[in-house]
Amino acid sequence: MAVAGLATAGQLLVVCLEHSCSYSKARSNSEHKPPSRGFSSLGALRFCNDERRGRRRGSSRASGIRADARRDSEQHMRDQQHEIRVCINKTCRKSGSLETLDVIRSLAPPNVTVESCSCIGKCGNGPNLVILPAEMMVSHCNTAAHAARLLALQCGASDPENNLKALDLKQQANKAFERGSLLEAEQLYTQAIELNPSGGLHFIYANRSALKLAQGNFQGALQDAQEAERIAPKWAQAFVRQADALSGMGEVESALNALSTALRLDPLLRRSKGFQAKTRDLQSKLATASAST
């Protein structure tokens, strides 16, 4: 019985060893077995990653399409002529419409004309304004940020935050110019120009032109005035600035031609006493030069 028991135990041991070996062999075979063509976890991971990449590519394409559409819309608005009329009637004036008028004029791109007007209704909700030709009425436009966003949405003056930064620098430069700090003013105007705002850039060039004229830098003043003309070719003040610079350079006839162009673009300049004085002065200089020759 003991031998039999030992044999039985030995057989059991052999069976256990064989089972262990067969398990190890099976495990070894399974580890070296080539991956199944089925939907393995690794395949699922690759599939999910590919799907995510596809979604990202699709999302990128969609974002690109939206960006292109937005740029096309902004370009279309910039190609159109817009007019903004700001009410300066008594009630709106109390709400700050004169400041709104000044800010919108300063931020407006060349394709936007900004004028004051009388009451347009909705008194008490001012400052009120209307955008043409869309015939859109806007109320409570009482901050520079609101004005900048409005110009961006309706007139194509993109990047309103950048435009506001340039406006702030221009206003600082104007104050420095007024107190006689010409070098500081020039630096501030230049910083504003380097921001390349989508609205009001021609005003900044014109202001720097006036500054350079005060410095006696007539050539620099002329270049800035010509740059203002390039940005806003229908803006009369750009030609007035050119006339000032040309007059300082002694080119009287060219200066008179520039004033003539300005008057053609804006006939209301005829009423300006300053414009009349400049014209008379240049005509007198031209007559004197002609008489001396």
UniProtKB/TrEMBL annotation:
<dbReference type="InterPro" id="IPR011990">
    <property type="entry name" value="TPR-like_helical_dom_sf"/>
</dbReference>
<dbReference type="InterPro" id="IPR036249">
    <property type="entry name" value="Thioredoxin-like_sf"/>
</dbReference>
<dbReference type="InterPro" id="IPR019734">
    <property type="entry name" value="TPR_rpt"/>
</dbReference>
<protein>
    <submittedName>
        <fullName>Uncharacterized protein</fullName>
    </submittedName>
</protein>
<feature type="compositionally biased region" description="Basic and acidic residues">
    <location>
        <begin position="67"/>
        <end position="78"/>
    </location>
</feature>
<feature type="repeat" description="TPR">
    <location>
        <begin position="236"/>
        <end position="269"/>
    </location>
</feature>
<feature type="region of interest" description="Disordered">
    <location>
        <begin position="52"/>
        <end position="78"/>
    </location>
</feature>
<keyword id="KW-0802">TPR repeat</keyword>
